[in-house]
């Protein structure tokens, strides 16, 4: 029985590359893989208006086809969650994040924290942590966040590759995946 998750061997363009101008990213794994629940699992920061298409090519390569050009200068992180699993046993390649920059350098800011449920004080797992411009109190309802992260099972989150600056953070149980507070139960 296969209990080992898929391992990323190589990426095109290479991980942590700069001056990226393309629309295609290829992630090569050590075994045959499939993509599951990409719409919920994939988290791109800074968020894109149009979700990329993910598909498997040649059995062991996951291709991310971007549906729009990336903005000039930011560092983008593609957190795959548990979207990539091995073909035979479904072991997820958990914790996989691919990073690139469209600018001359990688942004180096980072924020770590823990999200607790306001009513219970218990860790809030699987919620979106949204970064808006400092002082932007309406962005959670109407705008798109500058960056996003997801809390783990203990409510912990880490957002890396941020531009230096000030941010207003919101934690959101985003039921419809649009990174906005727009449903009654979110």
Helix percentage range: under 10%
Please count the helical segments.
2
> Biggest sheet, in brief?
4 strands, antiparallel
Large-scale geometry: globular
Q: What percentage of amino acids are in beta strands?
A: 35-45%
Q: What is the multimeric organization of the chains shown?
A: single chain
- Low-confidence runs of at least 5 consecutive residues: none
Overall mean pLDDT stands at 94
Run of helices and strands: EEEHEEEEEEEEHEEE
Number of strands: 14
SS-based class: mainly beta
What is the rounded distance between the termini? 40 Å
| Spatial extent as radius of gyration | 17 Å
Widest sheet: strand ordering: 1-2-6-5
Q: What would your notes on this structure say?
A:
The chain is mainly beta and 186 residues long. 4% of the residues lie in helices and 37% in strands. It is built from two helices and 14 strands; from the N terminus they run E-E-E-H-E-E-E-E-E-E-E-E-H-E-E-E. The strands form five sheets. A four-stranded antiparallel β-sheet has the order 1-2-6-5, with no helix packed on it. A three-stranded antiparallel β-sheet has the order 4-7-9, with no helix packed on it. It is globular. It starts with 7 loop residues before the first strand and ends in a 14-residue tail after the last strand.
Which SSEs are present, and which pair or pack?
Blueprint: E1 8-12, E2 24-29, E3 33-35, H1 38-41, E4 43-45, E5 53-57, E6 61-65, E7 75-79, E8 84-86, E9 97-101, E10 109-114, E11 128-133, H2 139-142, E12 147-150, E13 156-162, E14 167-172
Antiparallel strand pairs: 1-2, 2-6, 3-8, 4-7, 5-6, 7-9, 10-13, 11-12, 11-14
């Amino acid at each position: 029985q296969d209990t080992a998750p898929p391992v990323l061997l190589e990426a095109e363009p290479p991980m942590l590359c700069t001056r990226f101008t393309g629309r295609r990213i290829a992630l090569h794994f050590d075994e045959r893989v499939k993509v599951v629940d990409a719409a919920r699992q994939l988290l791109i920061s800074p968020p894109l208006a149009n979700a990329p298409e993910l598909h498997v090519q040649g059995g062991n390569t996951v291709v991310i086809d971007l549906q729009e050009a990336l903005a000039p200068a930011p560092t983008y992180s593609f957190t795959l969650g548990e979207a990539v699993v091995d073909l035979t046993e479904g072991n997820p390649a958990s914790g996989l994040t691919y990073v690139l920059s469209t600018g001359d350098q990688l942004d180096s800011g980072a924020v770590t924290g823990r999200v607790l449920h306001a009513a219970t004080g218990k860790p809030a797992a699987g919620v979106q942590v949204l970064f808006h411009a400092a002082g932007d109190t309406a962005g959670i309802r109407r705008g798109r966040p500058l960056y996003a992260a997801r809390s783990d099972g203990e409510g912990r989150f880490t957002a890396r590759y941020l531009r230096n600056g000030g941010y207003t953070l919101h934690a959101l149980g985003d039921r419809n995946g649009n990174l906005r507070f727009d449903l009654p139960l979110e």
